[in-house]
Amino acid sequence: MTVPALLAFAGLCVLLAVTPGPDTFLVLRYSLARPGAGLTASVGSAVGSILWALAVAFGLAALLEQSAELYRVVKIAGGLYLIYLGVSAFIASRRTAEHGADLKVRTTSLRSGFIAGMLSTVMNPKVGLFFLAIAPQFVPRDGNAIGNTLLLGAIDAVVAAGYLAIVAVLASRAVAWLKRPAVTKALERVSAAILAALGIGTIVLSVDE
């Protein structure tokens, strides 16, 4: 692939990354609880992108394009996971209000942030379909399809991780303001509600399809 083609693909990835979605709100939610967890959530999201690139490279994700039923199942599973994240975040927010900030730090580990970020991306079939739709336009017919697709996946992962890391860092920089009990409580519950709403919306749209 040529450098201009790679730059064009990177530009598309930037546009996709800056569009608010579940990953953005997930990273914000973890950053409010623990800045490091927000960063690991962004890394987990990047790993999820690479896993989708692997699936597309080896033709596994093509099943989503060929089977409407499978696509619906994956979307519903992803929606349920978002609802779980939203509900658990809301419950954690209430527990923190009752037992203090120390509980929040103990229950928000770096590992949980990473896993949540990865699963959020892996369970979002739109990421796989993005690769299915875009990759063929950039991968040369006479080139190494698997290697080039993985290269595109790596670019998308770096762009996504970079943007989400900026979100996490900005949230941590504003920690003095964000750590005010009333502000933290409001933002955590809003982000939890958004995650749950995205999950419910995903399931409703999947059932109606």
Verbal overview:
By secondary structure, this protein is mainly α. The protein has one domain (3-9, 25-208). It has helices at residues 3-18, 22-33, 35-57, 62-66, 68-99, 101-107, 110-122, 125-138, 145-173, 175-178, 181-208. It is globular and about 60 Å long. Mean pLDDT is 75; it is low at 99-107.
Q: Helix fraction?
A: over 70%
| Largest sheet data | none
Please tally the helical runs, counting DSSP H or I stretches of 4 or more residues: 11
Distance between the termini: 37 Å
Average per-residue pLDDT, rounded, comes to: 75
- Structural class, please? mainly alpha
Radius of gyration: 18 Å
User: Which residues sit in consecutive blocks of at least 5 with pLDDT less than 50?
Assistant: 99-107
Number of domains: 1
Determine the strand fraction and express it as a percent band. under 5%
Number of strands: 0
The global form is: globular
The succession of helices and strands, N to C, reads: HHHHHHHHHHH
Give descriptors for this structure.
about 210 residues; mainly alpha; about 90% helix; about 0% strand
In short:
The protein has one domain (3-9, 25-208). It is built from eleven helices and no strands. It has helices spanning 3-18, 22-33, 35-57, 62-66, 68-99, 101-107, 110-122, 125-138, 145-173, 175-178, 181-208.
How do the helices and strands line up, and which of them pair or pack?
Blueprint: H1 3-18, H2 22-33, H3 35-57, H4 62-66, H5 68-99, H6 101-107, H7 110-122, H8 125-138, H9 145-173, H10 175-178, H11 181-208
Helix pairs in contact: 1-9, 2-3, 2-7, 2-9, 2-11, 3-7, 3-8, 3-9, 5-6, 5-7, 5-11
